[in-house]
Amino acid sequence: MHTGEQYHEFMLASPRDRSVRARFQQLALGLLPAGASVLDFGAGTGIDAKTYAANGHPTFVFEPSEAMRDCLLRHCRDEIERKTVVAVASPLACKVQAVTANFAVFNHFADHAALFEQLSYVVRHGGFVLASLLNPYCLADARYRWWRANLVNLVRRGHYAIASESRIHRFAPRIVARAAAPHFRLERRMPSGLALASQLYMFLLFRRV
Asked: Membrane spanning segments where (predicted)?
């Protein structure tokens, strides 16, 4: 079984991940004007892209992983044939109202400044970037040694990386907001307040200025 297929089946079978995805999709669809185009950045196997297209939004998909992309091409075969989903080799190949990045795509970047500068050429003024990032404040992670070891880094620098093959980075929202400027401003962080401590993912909404 392909790695992409394994990921696809896992995400569809996981109640927790389906719930997170549903909240993210609902938020994105509520923000998108009718018929507005969207770039699914780090589109994975195309689960979100298929939903956006089904709701009348022309959807561009960018996915650098070959295994994920192969699965996406199968999963979204009908939409690709109808050109409601279009695969692009670079984000710069499209101009859209919004960019979405679900399930910690942005956590694979050590520094978001160059990324947001690139996305500023993609997102129309007044449009938005909606990103789902791993929440560095999630207290459920406090049971892990790496979380406790990096608590000082989080407080002092607002950023740390976990020593692993993928080297996933964790960011305080203020650090991502600083990297997004001057092209984007952080408009909303979800959840907010004490609810942040109980969620594995946080959603950050950036508005193109």
From this structure: none
